[in-house]
From TrEMBL:
Protein name according to UniProt: Secreted protein
Keywords: Signal
Signal peptide: 1-28
Length: 157
């Protein structure tokens, strides 16, 4: 029989769920920062968000015939974007906030990440894809010990 945690993770589309058991609730409170709640359109991949984090990220997708943009907001403020640019076969990560987190945009293969750079910063990576094949794009809000990603969105090369 599948556990409730595994069924919940599968239903949410989460790639990995990390769970830790404690002998008492007091021990859990003393050692683990609060885990974020997955916002609509998000999958918590690894939850250990630090207590100083501003809030839970939310994701919004916009698309036209050549570009797909996943906007990342925290507490109503745009902190970054993950983008797919079809004409150039580029995945793009944009970080706008100096909040200690970074943005990573992922497609099947290349990843663009703003890790290690001070915001505002834009990172770009090219991919070699055959034309008109479906691939997926995710934008991730990441930091020291946490990674919260949007659900994957279908894009075309």
């Amino acid at each position: 029989m599948t556990s409730i945690l595994a069924r919940t993770a599968a239903a949410a589309g989460a790639a990995t769920i990390t769970a830790t058991l404690f002998a008492s609730p007091a021990a859990a409170d003393a050692t683990v920062p609060p885990a974020p709640k997955a916002a609509a359109g998000a999958a918590v991949v690894r939850a250990a968000m630090p207590s100083q984090a501003a809030g839970v990220p939310k994701f919004r997708v916009e698309t036209n015939s050549q570009t797909t943009i996943v906007t990342v907001t925290v507490n109503g403020h745009v902190v970054g974007r993950g983008e797919w640019d079809d004409p150039s076969n580029q995945v793009i990560a944009r970080d706008y906030a100096r909040d200690g987190a970074y943005i990573q945009a992922e497609v099947e293969g290349p990843r663009a990440s703003t890790k290690g750079h001070q915001a505002p910063y834009t990172a770009k990576e090219r991919g070699a894809f055959r034309e008109d094949i479906p691939i997926t794009l995710s934008a991730c809000y990441m930091g020291n010990g946490y990674k919260i990603c949007s659900l994957p969105y279908r894009v075309y090369s």
